[in-house]
Amino acid sequence: MRAWPAMATAAVLVLAGCGQGLNAVARGDNPLVVAISGQPDQLDPHKTTAYASFQVLENVYDTLVVPNATGGGYAPQLAVSWTTADDRTWTFHLRTGVRFADGSDFDATDVVYSLNRIRNGKLANAFRLEPVTDVVAVDPHTVRLDLKRPTPYLLAELGGFKGTAILPQGAAEHLDLARQTDGTGPFRVARVTAAAITLLPNEYYWGDGPQVSSVEFRFISEPTTALVALQTGEVDWTDNLPPARVGKLAHDKHLRLGQVPSVDYWYLAPNFKRPPFDDPRVRQAINLGLDRPAIAEAAQPGLAAPIQTAIPPGVYGHTDYAPVTRDVPRARALLAGAGHPRLSMGLMVTSEYPETVQAAEVIASNLHEIGIDVRIEVEEFATWLDREGKGDFDTYLLGWLGDIDPFDFYQSQHACNGSNNYQKYCDPQTDQLLQQAATETDAARRAALYGEVAKRIVDANSYIYLYNPRVVQAWSPKLTGYQIRADRAVNLETVEFAR
Q1: Predicted confidence (pLDDT) at residue 8 exceeds the cutoff of 50
Q2: What is the pLDDT at residue 371?
Q3: Whether 262 contacts 486, CB under 8 Å
Q4: 41 class by beta-carbon count within 10 Å (0-12 exposed, 13-18 middle, 19+ buried)
Q5: Of 49, 107, 178, 378, whose CB neighbour count within 10 A is largest?
Q6: Which pLDDT band holds residue 244 (cuts at 50, 70, 90)?
Q7: Where are the beta strands (DSSP E) in 119-209?
Q8: Is 23 exposed, middle or buried, given 0-12, 13-18 or 19+ CB atoms closer than 10 A?
Q9: How far apart are CA 60 and CA 263, in angstroms?
Q10: In angstroms, rounded to a whole number, what is the distance separating the alpha carbons of residues 410 and 475?
Q11: Cα–Cα distances in angstroms (integers) from residue 260 to residues 24, 59, 240, 390, in the given order
Q12: Rounded distance, CA 202 to CA 189, Å?
């Protein structure tokens, strides 16, 4: 999913003994083992959009800026300060004394190379830099970004996860970036196998960390297995917990449990290009047939709130708009009026996120009452992504996470030419509002524009929003220094074992 999109687009990375050619990795006397549910599709930060990849890459690469852990504002990373003179010119002053994991020095030419690689190569994260017309190295420690229009969300695009990470100049010519890394972050990738990725400290790191001798990202897809591994000390950290058991874990002496509100949303998308889901009456009937509280409870018991718009309360751009109340008779009438008093519908979910399967079972029961027989289609994630990309679905269910700015919540998913608009919603007025909001520099006016966007998306059922979950993670009582984040970024730089 970040989506961040938790939602990736490439085949799953399955390697054995590659990385940097290290099969035998010395983990040191305080190795950290973390369990994540998914396997990275690849390690190129400019090409991946998979959350599993970014869980690893968060610790390997730096960006110019980084979002604060609470989701509000930005902190320096490779840029120590920045200014904008006229809304179309941003100047970033770079950190000095920084070196990549290969020992080479970092300077402005690396920023120019990295951002231009994304833009010119039209790589997966190019949409983040679409307003950029030029990247100029003013001097070795100053970079200027020229923009075609005011871009109030620029920092979010430069800092969200590591999609715009800074690589050494010419890195793609010398490394297989899908399998090898060379960043300025606290760790470097030392080994990749089909079961795990091992990181070792970057000996040239500019910061104070890391505090552990190695990190092993172990892929454990079954939540109960991951929890048992944490309780028995086999792993030290996981975000893959059985939702139904979270309520009882607060008093488990074998672990520490952390929870914070997330910026995720989970949703159902109907295919606007496939009849009868191109009929607004059918989409509205689906929406009216859903019991959101029951769906949220099935997916994340006690940990998710029903929603009808994308941005959670308390986050900039939130719109208080919830026009739908479950109405079975009205839903039946809409289907009958559309000529489909009884309808068969596919609902594509993925075993990679078991909660989608649990939610789909409730949705199927809900929609049966209004006259829709739901076929729950459970796919491996790679197959799920392939079908999504080809538009081979009636409806699908997934989540979108790691968003920071309203632009991230709406633009690529609902603009007519949006790179993640797989449901093929296209409305000229929504497009116009999206364009206005993307360039509006007054925060209040911008929030109002996104409010109008949100209402049009909800009314058209481009996405049928379902629930907003909390971030829930757990770790060993021996660990200190870990900060749980609203955007689910997993930063292990400051983690250490209690002495």
Answers
A1: no
A2: 98
A3: yes
A4: buried
A5: 49
A6: confident
A7: 132-139, 142-147, 187-192, 196-201
A8: exposed
A9: 23
A10: 33
A11: 38, 21, 15, 35
A12: 9
SS3 476: coil
Nearest partner of 117 among 70, 50, 169, 78, judged by Cα: 169
- Name the one residue in this structure whose structure tokens are 């920092």: 155
CA dihedral 52, 199, 493, 406 (to 10 degrees): -20
| Residue 25 confidence (pLDDT) | 65
Q: What is the DSSP string of 7-32?
A: ---SPPP--SS-TTT-SS----SSEE
List CB contacts of 161: < 8 A, sequence separation 6 or more.
Answer: 2, 4, 54, 57, 58, 402, 487, 489
pLDDT, residue 23, reads 43
User: Binning pLDDT at 50, 70 and 90, where does residue 218 land?
Assistant: very high
Q: Which two tokens stand for residue 108?
A: 């402005």
User: Which single residue is written with the structure tokens 């591994």?
Assistant: 229
CA distances from 83 to 107, 149, 407 (A): 18, 16, 21
Helix (H) or strand (E) holding 364: helix 354-368
E strands in 108-158 = 132-139, 142-147
| Contacts with 92 (C-beta within 8 Å, 6 or more apart), sequence order | 64, 79, 81, 82, 111, 142, 143, 144, 145
Note the pLDDT tens digit of each residue in 275-326.
999 999 999 999 999 999 999 999 988 899 999 999 999 899 999 999 999 9
> Cα-flanking dihedrals φ and ψ of residue 89, to 5°?
-135, 115
Would you place residue 24 in the very low, low, confident or very high pLDDT band (cuts 50, 70, 90)? low
